Amino acid sequence: MKMIILLAATMLLTHATVIDVANIYQPLSLHGSDVDDEVDDTGEALQAAILSRPMALTGAFPEVLVESIAMPHQLPTNNPNYAIKEVNLVVLCGLKVAAELDDSGTLQVEINIANLVIPPDIDLTARQVLKLLSASIRKTVTEYNMGQKGDLKVLLRIVGTNDSNQTLQDLGSQYKVPGKVNG
């Protein structure tokens, strides 16, 4: 009898989990390909792109959306010569992304760069990688919030800096993402 009750309770909990499918924008390295996609603010073409991919997610929204930007990403290919196993710049460069919705409704996002290392085959600067990540976060929360009734305030901070990279803190930002117009 106890086993039946335990099984029923487990089934109820399993069915209570909501799985949502959402587009997540990730900053991707295009190394190993013949493509230059993004152009930085100096007009230089970068071998990187911000691309979306659908993910089935569960957890607190919009926080889980932002944190999912840091999930590994291997590009599917039909070319046996393309042997790149990881293209997400967050993973490749050792960045951490955390998000929390505070009591005032502001989405607090932290990009931790304490373990930031740009691999030798990635022809990008730390500043370029962080700008791509920041733009990925903005695109992800903008797409999500189009379906929400209210605006979403976002506070993005760069943490984990040291003496040699503390100037990267200036990439932190604060902005408002509009919700549905006629919500």
Please characterize this protein's 3D structure.
- This protein starts with a helix and ends in a 6-residue tail after the last strand.
- It is built from four helices and six strands.
- The strands form two sheets. The chain has a four-stranded mixed beta sheet with strand order 3-4-5-6. It has a two-stranded antiparallel sheet with strand order 1-2.
- It has helices at residues 2-16, 63-68, 89-92, 126-145, and strands spanning 20-29, 48-57, 96-101, 106-112, 152-159, 173-177.
- It has one domain (2-177).
- It is of the alpha+beta class and 183 residues long.
- A hairpin with a 4-residue loop joins β3 (96-101) and β4 (106-112).
Give the CA-CA distance, first to last residue: 49 Å
Strand order across the largest sheet: 3-4-5-6
Q: What is the mean pLDDT? A: 89
Tally of separate domains: 1
Strand content: 25-35%
Assign a percent range to the helix content: 10-25%
Write the layout of secondary structure elements.
Layout: H1 2-16, E1 20-29, E2 48-57, H2 63-68, H3 89-92, E3 96-101, E4 106-112, H4 126-145, E5 152-159, E6 173-177
Parallel strand pairs: 4-5
Antiparallel strand pairs: 1-2, 3-4, 5-6
Can you tag this structure with a few keywords?
183 residues; alpha+beta; four-stranded mixed sheet; two-stranded antiparallel ribbon; 4 helices; 6 strands
